[in-house]
Each structure stands twice: as C-alpha cells, then as structure tokens.
Give the backbone structure.
Amino acid sequence: MSLTFALAPTDLSALESDALIIGVYSGEDGATLAPNHLSEDTAEGVSELLEILNVTGSADQLVRLPGVEDSEAGILVLIGLGAPGEDETERVDALRYAAGSAVRQLPDLEEVTFDLPVTTTRELEAVAFGATLGSFSEEGLKVKSADSLKPGVQTVLIASELEGDSAEEALERGLILGEATNGARTLVNVPPSHLYPETFAEVATELVEDLPEVSARVYDYDQLLEGGFGGIAGVGQGSVRKPALVVLEYRPEGAQHHVALVGKGITFDTGGNSLKPAASMTTMKCDMAGAASVLHAVLAIAELGLPVAVTGYLCLAENMPGGYALRPEDVLTMRDGRTVEVLNTDAEGRLVMADGIALASESQPDVIVDIATLTGAAMAALGLRTAALMGDSEIRTRVLDAGEAAGEDYWPLPLKSYLRASMNTPVADIANMGERYGSAMVAGLFLREFVGKNDQGERIPWAHLDIAGPAFNEKAPYGYTPKEGTGFGTATLVNFVASYAE
Ligand code: BES
Ligand code: ZN
Ligand code: ZN
C-alpha cells in the first residue's frame, strides 16, 4: 500500500493526526527547535524541556511528548535534524533523512503531520521521498501474526506555505522516487530460493504490463546461446535455474535522447567453481541489486512520463559451482565477438555485464550507464555508503549531480590505462581478472572494452556505477535506510535520465 500525501495549512489547530512532528537542530549550545508553526508560548514551553529531556537534535533521535494545545494531534514528536545546513543540499539531505527516520520509527501510527522547515519544492519533494523510504516495511516470508500486520504510517500531511501544481508535483515525484527505491529493495530481499532469473524476468514482465509505453522482451537460455551472449549464458550454465536477459524499452513521444541502463542481475553469487568462503556468501542475494534498480528506475521514468527514450538491460544469471559450471581457464565468446578467458569464476559480474553493454551499444544510444555490485574492492576503497563511479567525465558529472539530488553518494575512481595490460592473456582477447590492487578499476576497464562505437566512430559516452558497498545494509537501520536491500542507485538513475529531458 502506498503512502498518501497531502499539503496541510500552517494553521495546525484543525489537524487531527496521530502525531505532529517538528524538527530539532543540534548545536554547540544545545538543541533548538527548527522553525515551526506552534504558537510562541507552546514553542517556548517545549524548548525549555529540551535539555532535561536530553534532546540533542542529532540525526535519528526521536522523542515522543504528549500532545500540545495548538494542535489536535495525539502526540508531539521531536525529530533530530542535526546541525543546521550550510547550503540547500545539506538542508534537503537533512529533511529527507529526518522525515524517513521519523516515519520508520513510528510504525504504530497511521497518520502523521510534518511541520518541518520546508519552504521550497525541492525540500517538499525530499520530505515526501524520505517519508516514503522510511515507510518501507516487509514481513518477508514469516508466518503472519497479528503483531506483524501493523500497517505503519499510511497518511502524511506536510504543513507548509507551498501550494498549487508545483507543490503537488513535488509530492508526486517524491512518492514515485521512494516507491521505485522500495521496489528495488523488495526485489533484493527476496531469498534466492524464490528469486532466480526466470522469476525475476516474470516480475519485470508483469510490472511493465500496466505501462503502455514500456515493453519487455525476455531472452531465454536457448535464445542467449543463439544470440551469442557467451557471458550471460556461460555464467548461468552451471545452475539448474537458467539465465535470462530482459530488455525493457520505454519509448515516449517526442524523445530527443536515448539512454541505455545496464544492470547486473546475479540472483545469487556463490562464486561458482572459484567458490566464495561461507562468510562472504551470505549477502550474495544482493548481487542482482543493479538489475533491480534498472527495472524500477525504468518503471518510475515511465510513470513520470519523462520525454527521454530509455532501454533497460537486466543481465540475469545464478552463479553456481558444479559439473556444468564454468571452469577457470574456460574461454567465452561474447555478444560482440570478443573472447574472454575466465580466470576466476567469481568475477562473473563483468561477464554478464559485458554482454549487456555490447547489446546496448548495438542500438547506438546517446549514453550507456551500467550499475552493478561488481567488486569487493569498491567497498574496501569507499566504504558502505558511497558507490564508486567510473567512466567519461561528462557522464560522471551528470551522475554525481543526479546522485546528489537523490541523496545517494558517489565518488570517482580513475580508469588508469596501465592496468589494462594485467588482463592480457595468450588465449583470448582479454581475461576476466587482472592486477589485484585497484581491482574496482580493473573491472571498470574490462567493461569499457565492451562499450561500442557510435555513428561518428567514437566510443559511446559511458559511466559505470559500482554499488557493491551501498546496495546492502547488514547493520541496523538508520535514517530512511532499512536493513538488507537499500535500493541504492534507483533514484540516481531516474534523476540522471531526467537530466536529458531538459
Ligand atoms: N558480487 C561480487 C562483489 C561483491 C562483494 C558485491 C561483496 C557485494 C559485496 C563479485 O562478483 C565478486 O565476487 N568480485 C570479486 C572479483 C575478483 C574475483 C576479481 C571480488 O571483488 O573479490
Ligand atoms: Zn562473484
Ligand atoms: Zn557477483
């Protein structure tokens, strides 16, 4: 069930929700209430309590207080906004985070009112986006008990002076971005027993049915073999669950640009015959997070009606060991005719992605962006909340801007050409492994080899997003980020495509 948003008047007296939520800033001299629409007396009364209640205003701190006279809301809730932001981006980030954190921490309430310092449509969108992200909840495959059936927050009122079409559009955009991200999270969390290439392809096919401008084509295993997709077919050959490639086409009227999005969809990565140790295998249902983001980004782009043609490629396979599985030293022929020596079957992501990127190049899009949980090295370099960004500088800049607007953090890594030689092999055009140090960049260089040329004979502009770190949260939830799948990258892709509509 999706959240319902409504703009509310700043006269709080008539608003009958379960909670009125106001912000608190942290500061060196203690916490202060963020601008709100309480009466001066009430605000002063609450402010005087902050110290004794140990309210610091730090991010994720939520304090419930009895309701106040100024509003009909059942309780007053204080949510931390951290230090007051220095610029608009910091303020927007803090609002998105606080709105999400509050909704996540109030699962027993149904209707809440935010009275936060929201003065621009960007801030309004961020509150709606964050609240939607914070409302994400799942029972997974647990037996349903009465306790687990709490629906959580359903309705969110946002008090502000904003009104009219632009404000309504901001709410709608925040909701669509949030639901797209939540959709990707849901897919990541499905156990690999239940989500494998065939079921993933079914989900994709069903989801596009309601959207007349989006079509889905599924290549099954035989079609992959016939079509020369040696990477996807090869990685998937060791599993009884055969691989698939899904191509999603969104073709709106009047589009001036065509963006290709390629996602890694390894529904489980055991490492294959180069088997992973048990401890590194237990999060590997997340190895299809890139494909989940591409799928939900394409759906959201269509829902928003963005005037940009988009093709999404979901490169789906299960990487298993066994009698039919790839061996180290096997050689594969990829979609573009190039040959690859498989030196490590755990470097499977680049094999499926190479085919996706090669196929994407055939339709000569203006730009290709690929997104993949590709390397442990990207996590080692940038941690769990920042994705690695590689590729052409103009595209990187666009991705950075799109990510910033989505509250998703990227940091560029260089593609140093000296590393290419480490993938040389006497038996094929390239090997799927090279120099150990810098292996996030080695993987990026490998993918770049499969980016084709455009009409002018130039390599198609391209960027590569390695989301191995931020795709999955093994720790406690924070802000609007839940445990397990985070949906990271989905909103970036939507914003990235939107940048071609201008
Ligand atoms: N799926 C993994 C990368 C990964 C690791 C994603 C941890 C999320 C969390 C990928 O297929 C892999 O195993 N990469 C290897 C490549 C190596 C064998 C060249 C890696 O990074 O160790
Ligand atoms: Zn792997
Ligand atoms: Zn993998």
Q: What stands out?
A: The chain has a mean pLDDT of 97. The first strand starts at residue 4 and ends at 8. The chain is about 35% helix and 20% strand. The two ends are 32 Å apart (CA to CA).
